[in-house]
Amino acid sequence: MAEFDYDLFVIGAGSGGVRAARVAAKLGARVGLAEDSDLGGTCVNRGCVPKKLLVYAGRFRYDLEDMRGFGWTVPGEPTFDWAALIAAKDREIGRLNDVYGDLLDGSGVDLVRGRARFVDPNAIEVDGRRITAEKFLVTTGGTPHVVDIPGKELAITSDEVFHLDAMPERVVIAGGGYIGLEMGSIFRSMGAEVHVVHRGAHVLSAFDHECTDFLLSQLRLQGMHVHMEHTIEKLAKTPTGIAATLDDGTVLEGDVQLAATGRKPNTAGLGLDTIGVDLAPSGAVLVDDEFRTNVPSVFALGDVIERMPLTPVAIAEAMAFVSTQFGGKRIDVDYMNVPTAIFTSPEMASVGISEEHAWERGHRVHCFCSQFRPMRNTLAQRNIRSLMKMVVDEETDRVLGVHVVGPDAGEIVQGFAVAVRAGVTKSDLDTTIGIHPTAAEELVQMREPVKRAAGAGNEIEMEERPEGAAST
């Protein structure tokens, strides 16, 4: 008889956990997986998928406004039904849950429902059932972090925001990161009054500051109120809503107060401390390059290790883990030049490093920038502009970073991410013929760098394109 019930037991059915379980099972391992909530984790149920569906819904408002500039008219005033949108979203999430279940079943993975807790390095308990495994993989993801202020219980988080019974008319958001700006943009596009309170000098502070400042200007043009370098000190119920008091005494009342002040690793209650697994002060599981903890039988990956909390990264980590442990081939995850997008309206996307990070790492850089009004916005008479920026190493001519703010930024940067990872040079792009007229052709048309002195933060002279984009 086998010494353990399973060769691998995965705790958490998010994107990374499901991928690891499925692939390991297909390689012949005996695999089990425990999940106490919906399959698919944060991304499918409370993150990427429902967020993008609501982004699409909000953008239809702008489409309806813009179509008149192109000769289209719709009889009567369009109406929006929040309940119908949420019901449709729920049906799609339910379908995806079923897909995940079918994928696990079809791969031969045993799905165990319930919260797992370690009782020794090779055993867990799930609802009183003891399960043993040679190797355990923790992929429990993250959970919203709420700042400890008076009245914090009045706030909702990204776990609840997709299940509101009614469309809020006034929304106050704490935090100018991914979640705060994306949800703020969604609600603003649906007609809500939106206030975002951000403690820093730059929103999305890890990104190129020139681009994030430009994005902020475009969000403000569309009516979003962003209060920079402020914090919410307390929340209190009022007869007409919930009031947020800022550090300067300003009071912002909303129907909804959304806490979007980051996420923390979801490790509480797993019993990791019981078996001596080392954790960071944040609760993140500490692992080596093979995702192994200090306890040889326990591994972890995805948001719970806090390296790069992105769904595609968790999937890449899962593939590397399985190949190394069960496939006979060591694979390491390369965290350099990982593309990412923020699905605001307009979008922002990036691959590589920012101008600030380039200077900090000792590069002397040329920066190429172009700002223009997309062609679609000309007839629509919409004064929302796009920005494209390229950071180039002066000595090697290698492109270090590509940053785009504007429609379809994610789609554009995904393609350029391949080139950046392959070591594309500015000269390579200069000899590439663009597709005309497109926005993406700007990235192969910018010829003159904006002026830089000794480093980031200097005044720039930005290259301007004619109205309607299309380089001439």
User: How does the overall form come out from the CA principal axes?
Assistant: globular
- What's the total helix number? 11
* Helix content range: 25-40%
What's the domain count? 3
Summarize the biggest pleated sheet.
7 strands, mixed
Say what oligomer this is: single chain
**Second rung of CATH, namely the architecture of the largest domain:** 3-Layer(bba) Sandwich
**CATH C-level class of the largest domain:** Alpha Beta
Strand content: 15-25%
CATH superfamily of the largest domain: FAD/NAD(P)-binding domain
- CA radius of gyration is 24 Å
Characterization of this structure:
There is one protein chain. This protein is α/β, with parallel strands linked by helices. It has 3 domains: 6-143 and 264-326, FAD/NAD(P)-binding domain (3-Layer(bba) Sandwich), CATH 3.50.50.60; 152-261, FAD/NAD(P)-binding domain (3-Layer(bba) Sandwich); 340-464, FAD/NAD-linked reductase, C-terminal dimerisation domain (Enolase-like, domain 1), CATH 3.30.390. It is 28% helix and 24% strand. It has helices spanning 15-26, 41-46, 48-66, 82-107, 178-189, 209-221, 311-326, 355-360, 375-380, 409-421, 426-430; strands at residues 6-11, 31-35, 110-113, 116-120, 123-126, 129-138, 142-144, 170-174, 193-198, 225-228, 232-238, 241-246, 251-254, 256-259, 263-265, 298-300, 340-342, 348-352, 365-372, 386-393, 399-405, 463-464. The strands form 5 sheets. Strands 1, 2, 3, 4, 5, 6 and 16 form a 7-stranded mixed beta sheet that branches. Strands 17-18-21-20-19-22 form a 6-stranded mixed beta sheet, sandwiched between helices. Strands 10-9-8-14 form a 4-stranded parallel beta sheet, covered by helices on one side. The longest helix is centred in the first third of the chain and has 26 residues, at 82-107. The chain is globular, with a radius of gyration of 24 Å. Residues 465-472 have low confidence and may be disordered.
